[in-house]
Amino acid sequence: MPWGRTAPPRSPGPRSAQGRRLARPLSVRTLAAQVFVLQALIMLVIVAGAAAVLVAQDRHDAEHNARNRSMAAAEAFAHGPGTALALRSPHPTTWLQPAAERARRGSGVDFVTVLDPRGVRLTDPVPALIGTRARDIGPAAAGESFTQTFHGRPADAVRAVVPVTDASRRVVGVVTAGVQIATLGHLLDEKLPMLLGAASGALLLATFGTALIGRRLLRQTHGLGPAEMTRMYEHHDAVLHAVREGVLIVGGDGRLLLANDEARRLLGLPEDADQRPVTELGLGPVPTRLLGSGRAVSDQVVPVRDRLLAVNTRLTAPYGGAQGMVATFRDTTELTALSGQAEVARGRLSYLYEAGTRIGTTLDVRRTAEELAEVAVPRLADFVTVELLDSVLRGEEPTGAVHRMRRTALRGVGAGPPLQPVGDLIRFVVADTPMVAALNRGKAVLVPDLHTAQDWRAHDPRGAQRALDFGIHSLITVPLRARGIVLGMVNFWRGSGSPRFEEEDVAVAEELVARAAVAIDNARRYAREHAMADTLQRSLLPVGLPDQDVLEIASRYLPARSGVGGDWFDVIPLPGFRVALVVGDIVGHGLHAAVTMGRLRTAVLNFSSLDLAPDELLGHLDEMVTRLDSHTAGSDDDRAPLTGATCLYAVYDPVAGHCTLSRAGHLAPAVVDDRGRVTFPDLPLSPPLGVGGHPFEAGELDLPEGSRLVLFTDGLVEDRGRDIDEGLAAMRSALADAGRSPEETCRALVETMLPAHPGDDVALLVARTRLLDPSRVAVWDVPSDARAVSRVRAELGRRLDDWGLGDAAFSTELIVSELLTNAIRYGTPPVRVRILLGRTLVCEVSDGSSTSPRLRRAATTDEGGRGLFLVSQFAQRWGTRHAAQGKVIWAEQALDHRPEPDPDVLLDALAR
């Protein structure tokens, strides 16, 4: 049969003739008969091999099973009760022979034999062998059990040899048990008929299947004769040469076997092309390589002479022919031109869609400009530069000064283009340049050939020449505009190896820049709003930590990835060298959260000036939040309510090392002692601020000197990928170091617990405690007797002399005298005086009355009422705070030796 010609089904003839052909017996010369014989031989070999493998496997399994049974029987008898004792008796055979026979019959082995340590048989199924010596039991005599295939007298067998030991682990005998090889052969002989039967059945089944295949093959050939085959070939040739597609058949050796008339016309084949190698037909490199590759392709368009042909190739071998290839050719020159234009348009749309997804992925002006350059290179241009106004880079509104821009992005296919680098200031001052023309016209300007254009050289002739020498030869410059305002300029350059820009490229460049302009303007406005919110929030946070001596403090604030939030902290010095530590968290992010944080922080500062207890202060704060929320709910204001804000307020007293804390829905702080042990104290928890209806409770902690108190918001220990328990466990590990300072503790927590851009903002405050030196504290319990004032004043003077503060004795004695006199006269017992020396001198007078004094101006006729006025003149500041029982009036004096009030002025003031 010629190459590539197949036999299509012929039209059916008379039913009687077809029936005779299908009923025709298989002939040895037919393909069906040869396939049948070959498959039958293969199945015979396979079945025989499988039977041999099964026999070998059964023999191996039987021998393995015999070893296991023998070892089990031998070990059971050797370790059986009484075996060792019987071996040491005067007549061991008498005792062991019956037992060995019972064990043999019970275990199914052929023999169980007991030997003495020298190998002499004491028992045996064959009595005549008793007393004879057994061979190859040396390892067992040494105390080792083993199995083996034994060959020799009295019979070949698979046996196990096990030593018998007494209580002292000494070998007193040997037990052998086994199965004879003859027994195993008998078992295999019993299985052999079954194996042969199965093999015969498999062979018969395979033969039947092969016969069905042969019948099917005979049916598909239809028993065609020579005349019918000739007629089929004639029809085949007529169709082959009449079709409007070129057909080539190439043999496995690369020679042309057949070419129809259309193929000869399309390819320009010579008359003697048959049997010539395809490499000698002059088809061109692409079709020659395609026909010689031996791979199948579908509708691949290749140029041949002045035509574009769609080529399909298929291998002939899988379809019944010898090794070779069939190729068809269809003229698609005009169709390719039309589809090429559509493909270009589709490619541009796809490119612009891709650019829309890749430009503006971040709300960052510089990164958006870089993304524009990355998208344009190399698909649109070889080099891209992006210049933006400085005001745009700062997030401000674009100014009218569009002739001064900052280069923001530069990207190219090669390294080192002769263009100004990123960061340079670009000035567009020469009116004839394409850039200035584009800015004035508000649309793109195309310069197809920079070699012939002179206007673009006017601004920087030397730089222009370097660009030309580098190979840059074509330019499109596009103003970057959004909302009708110029934001910057984008320049697209093409270099050597790339074609010139055309008008179609201008449309793509303008669309690309328009999309980028919207993204850059959005990023600019976001940057402005983010900067405003960030500035507002940071202005509402503490600028610096206040000066005080009782706590070593470090702090951190980290804004969230999504923007500013409402987390905050504060450190507030209180009278008596006490310090208040505050941490709070506002629900949500953005300007509203920042403003809310500022309002709450201001409220806490105001309430702390009243020197309230932590639970009372949170109660007032909760009342304020509830009142503000009720006002918001009753108006048209769409602001989010304050309800849900959390706060932790702690007051540390350095005299006793005592800390009082109260929390409204906030996490408890961590306490790290001076040995690095971390605890999370169980403090009373009240609802968040604004919930209302619940009293606030306070908890108390005793903090030895050197302890670290860690206050934090939930953003430190909780995020989407970690629950709060995991976060607290990680925080415990990060804090477990006794030698860290507060600053080092903050750094370790931030590096260990937080990613580079946390999902929630974080406020962190770490304070290491110090105690006030007891030698700088003086306390006097004063009886309710006015005569005790002079005694306290005298002791106070001596103590001030001990402290080296004799210069402050007059003013301090005056302050204490006035305050103590008021407490004795108007207060209730117990009355106590306490003097604290730190960076200032604090005088405290406490009594059991809750009535607070107030400063007033006494009339000239009044005999009293001038004490607090004197206190206010000599003290730097003074005030009153309420305790659990009574009140404390305190006055604080600076130790910088400031001048005391003029006595004449005081007398004049008192006399009025």
TrEMBL record:
<dbReference type="InterPro" id="IPR003018">
    <property type="entry name" value="GAF"/>
</dbReference>
<dbReference type="GO" id="GO:0000160">
    <property type="term" value="P:phosphorelay signal transduction system"/>
</dbReference>
<feature type="domain" description="PAS">
    <location>
        <begin position="234"/>
        <end position="299"/>
    </location>
</feature>
<keyword id="KW-1003">Cell membrane</keyword>
<dbReference type="InterPro" id="IPR003594">
    <property type="entry name" value="HATPase_dom"/>
</dbReference>
<dbReference type="GO" id="GO:0016791">
    <property type="term" value="F:phosphatase activity"/>
</dbReference>
<keyword id="KW-0067">ATP-binding</keyword>
<feature type="transmembrane region" description="Helical">
    <location>
        <begin position="194"/>
        <end position="214"/>
    </location>
</feature>
<dbReference type="GO" id="GO:0016301">
    <property type="term" value="F:kinase activity"/>
</dbReference>
<dbReference type="Pfam" id="PF17203">
    <property type="entry name" value="sCache_3_2"/>
</dbReference>
<dbReference type="InterPro" id="IPR036457">
    <property type="entry name" value="PPM-type-like_dom_sf"/>
</dbReference>
<dbReference type="InterPro" id="IPR033463">
    <property type="entry name" value="sCache_3"/>
</dbReference>
<protein>
    <submittedName>
        <fullName>Histidine kinase</fullName>
    </submittedName>
</protein>
<dbReference type="InterPro" id="IPR001932">
    <property type="entry name" value="PPM-type_phosphatase-like_dom"/>
</dbReference>
<feature type="domain" description="GAF">
    <location>
        <begin position="364"/>
        <end position="530"/>
    </location>
</feature>
<feature type="region of interest" description="Disordered">
    <location>
        <begin position="1"/>
        <end position="21"/>
    </location>
</feature>
<keyword id="KW-0547">Nucleotide-binding</keyword>
<dbReference type="InterPro" id="IPR052016">
    <property type="entry name" value="Bact_Sigma-Reg"/>
</dbReference>
<keyword id="KW-0812">Transmembrane</keyword>
<feature type="domain" description="PPM-type phosphatase">
    <location>
        <begin position="548"/>
        <end position="769"/>
    </location>
</feature>
<feature type="transmembrane region" description="Helical">
    <location>
        <begin position="31"/>
        <end position="56"/>
    </location>
</feature>
<dbReference type="GO" id="GO:0005886">
    <property type="term" value="C:plasma membrane"/>
</dbReference>
<dbReference type="GO" id="GO:0005524">
    <property type="term" value="F:ATP binding"/>
</dbReference>
<keyword id="KW-0418">Kinase</keyword>
<dbReference type="InterPro" id="IPR029016">
    <property type="entry name" value="GAF-like_dom_sf"/>
</dbReference>
<keyword id="KW-0378">Hydrolase</keyword>
<dbReference type="InterPro" id="IPR000014">
    <property type="entry name" value="PAS"/>
</dbReference>
<dbReference type="Pfam" id="PF07228">
    <property type="entry name" value="SpoIIE"/>
</dbReference>
<keyword id="KW-0597">Phosphoprotein</keyword>
<dbReference type="InterPro" id="IPR035965">
    <property type="entry name" value="PAS-like_dom_sf"/>
</dbReference>
<dbReference type="InterPro" id="IPR036890">
    <property type="entry name" value="HATPase_C_sf"/>
</dbReference>
<keyword id="KW-0808">Transferase</keyword>
<dbReference type="Pfam" id="PF13185">
    <property type="entry name" value="GAF_2"/>
</dbReference>
<keyword id="KW-0902">Two-component regulatory system</keyword>
<keyword id="KW-1133">Transmembrane helix</keyword>
<keyword id="KW-0472">Membrane</keyword>
<dbReference type="InterPro" id="IPR029151">
    <property type="entry name" value="Sensor-like_sf"/>
</dbReference>
<dbReference type="Pfam" id="PF13581">
    <property type="entry name" value="HATPase_c_2"/>
</dbReference>
